[in-house]
Amino acid sequence: MKTEVDNTIVPFTATLLKWFAQYGRELPWRGITDPYGIWVSEVILQQTRIDQGRDYWLRFMDRFPTVEALAAANEDDVLLQWQGLGYYSRARNMHAAARQIVEQGGFPRTIEGLRALKGVGDYTAAAVGSMAFGLPVAAVDGNVYRVLSRHYGIDVPINTVLGKRTFGALAQELLPRDKASAFNQAMMDFGATWCTPRSPRCMDCPFAQTCEALHTGRISVLPVKEKKLTVKERRFSYIYIRHKGRTALRRRQPGDIWQGLWEPLMVEDGPLPELGCPLSTLASDVKHVLTHRVLRADFYLAEPAVRPALPEGYQWIEEEDIVNYAVPRLVEKLLQLVKR
Q1: In the annotation, is 42 catalytic?
Q2: Residues 114, 125: contact at Cβ < 8 Å?
Q3: 183: exposed, middle or buried (Cβ count in 10 Å: 0-12, 13-18, 19+)
Q4: pLDDT for 197-212, tens place per residue?
Q5: I need a surface site. Which of 194, 213, 248, 283 has the fewest CB within 10 A?
Q6: Residues 6+ apart with CB under 8 A from 24
Q7: DSSP code of residue 150
Q8: Residues 129-165 pLDDT 10s
Q9: Dist CA 118 CA 116 (whole Å)
Q10: Which residue of the set 4, 26, 42, 320 is catalytic?
Q11: In this structure, are residues 143 and 200 in contact, taking their beta carbons and an 8 Å threshold?
Q12: 151 close to 12: Cβ distance less than 8 angstroms
């Protein structure tokens, strides 16, 4: 990976691009200009580590190699390919956006057009626009906030309106108009591999001479973030019913977590149902952390001799077919215990 450095650009940017030419990561979507492949990578990496995201990107692109293929797929198939990544609204939004793109005859080539796609925010629009079409727009994410706040000693909270404006304007000022793609990717890589949240590589950092946070001992306190929202806790009981080679699932409905995914019989904060047999405990108090929720779950196995009546919305399926149903990660843990 080689990036030519223009000596007329600001020193920060020149140093960054020089670093990127030597240390930029080799990634399967790096260097491509196909907006679809770039978009898929950006959506996957929104809440996913890059080592995990790489494999998912390869599998997803193999299953849906074009935006037309994704648009033509059914939602269950898309969610199944996404299974394990979490934050399933990303997959549903991407599926809906693919249909928007096909309906309008191809990817929009402006920031406004990209921003109008379902689930596409300012960062993703800037990332896809700069990498696919060379649009001179800075993509500002957590890595960018961290690098700029430390280097320039900015203590404006990054999760405020003022913070977003401040860092967005600074990133845009630093961005070289003819090298927007390289700049945005360099900022991502530098924040992810050198200027990391913990244990950054300050001693061999190319900005060691100019970093305000390093000189003032504020590496551990920058960037500043206002206090998070209160995290709520919910408690679930999951019961996997096995009856003559069949089990029961339901699809989770809109208005709650995991919309569109499937799950076995579930009770939230209530007594366990009578199913005509004892329940075997598979696991207790299994913890699963979401952005603003902590879930705690108990797992049970029921093997009744007579098929029990089920609440509305559940349906019987062959146990061997359960692999064809997209389930949340928490339910995956239950299924692994059942399989054992």
Answers
A1: yes
A2: yes
A3: buried
A4: 999 999 999 999 999 9
A5: 283
A6: 1, 3, 30, 185, 186, 189
A7: H
A8: 999 999 999 999 999 999 999 999 999 999 999 999 9
A9: 6
A10: 42
A11: no
A12: yes
